[in-house]
Fold each of these.
Amino acid sequence: MESYARLCGEVAVLLRGMKHLTARSIEATGVPGELAGMHVLGRIEQLGPVRLTDLSQGLGLDPSSVSRQVTALERRGWVAREKDPSDLRAQHLVLTQSGRQVVTALRQERAAALERLTPDWTAEQIDDLTARLARLNHDLELNADRQDRPPHDHTEARLENA
């Protein structure tokens, strides 16, 4: 259990560091936006054409909060709404060309900043950490519905087999 507590602590530090790194990248690129909006913009890019409800779920945020961010991104011309071809009553959120350019600029600046901050890391170390984080992210996403369940207790099974 102690190993998991340490892991949680390190992930929390990583999240704070990446938040700070992203905020600095926004400043460095001169993109006129805020961190929350850039997070929403990046998630739209990852999900592709997406309904607001699915975007909110993908972000783990309340739809009204996400809606405010999307409205601000629309005003900047970075996000547009398109009819959902499978349900003409619904709309998909999509990045505009300028929205894609913003995402690309931020991604490139953030990667360059991370490279500057880790000058003595080898390519193998970067690849190893990337693979381990990908595995952790995969397991977290795959098992998200199990989060509230207690770990399996093998005591009962042992007693039944005794």
Amino acid sequence: MDRYYTTESAINSDESALFRVLRARSEEEKEAVRVVLSEFFTMTPAGWAHKRCDAEIAAFKEKSSKSADAANKRWGKSSNADAMPTHTERTADAMPTNNQEPITNNQEPSKSKATPDGDPFDGIDPQVVSDFKALRTKQRAAITKTAMDGIRREADKAGVSLGDALTICCERGWRGFKADWITQPARASPQKASIYEQGQANAAIAKKMIFGEANETV
């Protein structure tokens, strides 16, 4: 039956050829083939035919023919002005002209990017890069372009290179970087000195209260 549908034609009436195709070698196998043919098929000039198979094959061919005709009517240039453009036409429409503004040679490069294209760690010590990546991974902070642009911007504010900023991050366990974090201690030092002096003054007052004025002159 599979062979019938594959060839879309009646089965060969030549028994020798049929037995060879079906690999019917023994007499029992050959007799079984003869029984099936005589019971389910009809001998015609074209060979052993099967009415149901012929009907299904004819219906399939008719459906395929109708589908092909419909496609030809829909996409055929002679009958449809809105038909699908050819590959050459699509390529010609998609190809930019020499006067297209976005790709002119005189166009100035965009200045909106804070970091250059490519590797944001270019030129930085590989060990520092490795340590910084490990630090960000440990703190579950992804290394994104936005994050690196921010670090680079803060490094510029602090007057240090990006490599130096990342080195400081690794040394202090920072996943990010702010210019104020390294410039603040210099401004805070006077406050620390005043606290120390205040402590000394408090200690002197306590000594006076405990030992009196005479102890101070000794």
Amino acid sequence: MISKYFYYLRGWLTSLRYFARPALIAQRGPLAVYRRYGTISIGQRSLFWPHAKLSCEGTAQQAAHLHIGERVQIGDHAQIHCGVSLTIEDDVMISWGCSIMDRDFHPNGLGEEQRRPTRIGRSAWIACNVVILKGVNIGEEAIIGAGAVVTRDIPARAIAAGNPARVIGQRPVSA
């Protein structure tokens, strides 16, 4: 029981230092947070497993905004890189080893890095080692299979897998 309180205390202290407003989050181990020219906001009761990384780096001309909703779980060694706008809505589960980004990290032929907003809808499940690239919208309650590379939008309630990720099914509607 004591360890549970320790996780929340460590998470709350991290939120005081790095986030736009304090949040009651559980931090199960080291959490790397990089913030420059941007804001990070995290909803209550989110959970970060060891060695997760949050990076929010905008430019002097355009601030970056990383928003993580309530009750989001982010697995160990998952990396989230925000350069303009990255939104993870409520109740999303992200497994270990995932990389989610809204930027390229390299200049295009004209010398400028490409950045486009990325969004993961409410209650989506992201399996281990998934890569989600810039400009992608993942719909509510979608499931992304292990090792997928998501380069295009995935509709709500879809099941997607592969490299590049393709829709392979639909979640049944629950009564």
Amino acid sequence: MFLESLILSTGDGSTIRFVIDNTLLAEIFMFIAGFLILSLIMGFLIHIYFALVGYRLSKKLRYDKPWLAFIPVANFFLLPILAKQPWALGFLFLIPPVFFILAIYWTWIIFERRNYPGILSLILIIAILPGVGGAGFFAFLIILGFVAFYDRNKKDRNIKIVKKKKRN
């Protein structure tokens, strides 16, 4: 039987033996497996969301290669490109603290290019705070969706305003 007992040593030289039932062990492994599967699904969905947002932002900002948003590593290079920075700065994703600070700066520029207040990019700072990180990340996802899919000024919406003639 695999891991059916756990032996702990006490300070006085005696040992304590705990017996773990095989069903409990199976339940623990099933919980871990379920958590891992759920994490993989959520990671995939978040990747698809970021890819769609990156694609839409690339189209709105008139970048000629918006398909880069769907390639997992290439999307790190899309962020400085959309912020009108050298694409090689995308290699800084290998240094997470530096990339995090630059990502805030780049999203600030991208937000302003889309006529949104750049200060909205500071919401990303909340994502690293303990206790409220999930809420900050979720808020950043919502803001990114608005910036990518909603145009703030009427001339970008492609709405044709037709004035009706008055009939007398």
